[in-house]
Write a structure and sequence with these properties.
With 366 residues, this protein is mostly helical. 74% of the residues lie in helices and 0% in strands. α2 (33-57) packs antiparallel against α7 (207-235) and α9 packs antiparallel against α10.
């Protein structure tokens, strides 16, 4: 069985969350988006604690195996299928998002379906090599991504493109607009790390691992706040809220003494790295759910079939960007994700705690 190191899990966690940089978190709160991110992250620590407690009860099992331990195979298989579909949809949406960015900015004369199949094929190849390969890739990518991010920030400052007055007034419309947006931001992006339960058992989820993940959460929060602050300060509140790809827009206006310009490729590096990791993690989770639910031993065959289906599905669904963004950033986080990321895990945790308590009680003659 392949294993993951703590540093590898840290890198994957941070990159996975940074995959949301394509659509800045909490931007609906306008200049207070950074406050939304901080508060949502603080709340999501409790959500992460719940996930880690679930894994702690069964440290050698993946998500589906934990579901079976909780509900048995009779009810566990249908729930496993639902999680398979949920993660499948997330994989397809990630593929659509990031291939659209690449297609519209770098290779706009290449058909979307060609880009999409190439992107998904790369994902299948990475997973084919094993989860350890994904972890090693994450180690290299995180260093590169953070360097690219701070390079962009430095260029924005040197080019005097940022106006931090755009962040004022703080809570100019009161606290209610912030409170209304926080629940969605807790779900997207922070609760998405629930997907890590499909492979966290491969990383020895002990107390040291908990510290690693809490530290990763802190790093993600700082980076997302930085990204959001510079997006607002550079583009203005109004334009940042309506821009399709605000991070790319920032890079396009960088001009340092008319020498350093046209840095689109740097923003693409940030978005691509977060995107490929996000899709890879969701893809792997989908495959794990399918294989564990139906006791399939030939995982590589599942990877191939799943890759073809995802490539076709993500190439032809939701052609209009406005519809895609509406479903992905509003409908799913509000009505579907809370069920899979919060309600079901919490119910499972309570059931498993009761089972453990009854087991201990019987063992002690209580």
């Amino acid at each position: 069985m392949q294993k993951l190191g703590r540093w590898q899990v840290f890198c994957l966690f941070v990159l996975f969350e940074l995959g949301t940089a394509l659509y800045p978190a909490g931007i609906a709160a306008k200049q207070d988006a950074w406050i939304v991110i901080i508060v949502s992250s603080a709340i999501s620590i409790l959500v992460l604690y719940l996930y880690l407690k679930l894994q702690e009860l069964y440290p050698d099992k993946n998500l589906i195996e934990i579901i079976f331990a909780c509900l048995g195979r009779k009810f566990g298989i249908p729930l496993g299928m639902l999680y398979s579909l949920f993660f499948f949809n997330a994989t397809a949406r990630s593929a659509f998002d990031f291939t659209s960015v690449i297609g519209e900015t770098l290779i706009n004369k290449t058909p979307h379906i060609v880009i999409n199949f190439t992107f998904v094929a790369a994902t299948v190849f990475i997973i084919w090599l094993g989860i350890e390969t994904v972890g090693r890739m994450g180690q290299v990518m995180l260093v590169t991504e953070i360097f690219a991010l701070f390079f962009i920030i430095a260029m924005v400052i040197l080019g005097r493109n940022a106006d931090f007055h755009e962040l004022l007034p703080i809570m100019g419309e009161g606290v209610m607009p912030i409170i209304k947006i926080i629940p969605n931001t807790v779900i997207f992006p922070f609760s998405e790390v629930f997907v890590f339960l499909t492979f966290l058992h491969l990383a020895n989820p002990d107390n040291k691992m908990k510290k690693v993940l809490y530290t990763a959460q802190l790093v993600v929060t700082v980076l997302l706040v930085l990204i959001t602050v510079f997006i607002i300060a550079t583009l203005s509140v109004e334009y940042a809220a309506i821009s399709t790809y605000p991070l790319i827009e920032i890079v396009r206006i960088i001009d340092v003494e008319e020498v350093i310009t046209n840095l689109d490729a740097v923003s693409i590096v940030i978005i691509f790295m977060g995107g490929i990791i996000k899709e890879t993690v969701y893809f792997y989770a989908t495959a794990v759910c399918i294989c564990s639910s139906f006791s399939i031993k030939n995982k590589k065959l599942v990877y191939i079939v799943l890759g073809v289906v995802i490539a076709i599905y993500s190439s032809y669904f939701e052609k209009r960007d406005s519809e895609h963004i509406l479903i992905g950033l509003k409908i799913i986080p509000q009505y579907i994700s809370p069920l899979f990321f919060l309600s079901i895990p919490l119910l499972m945790f309570l059931i498993l705690r009761l089972k453990k308590h009854n087991k201990w009680g019987k063992a002690e003659g209580i």
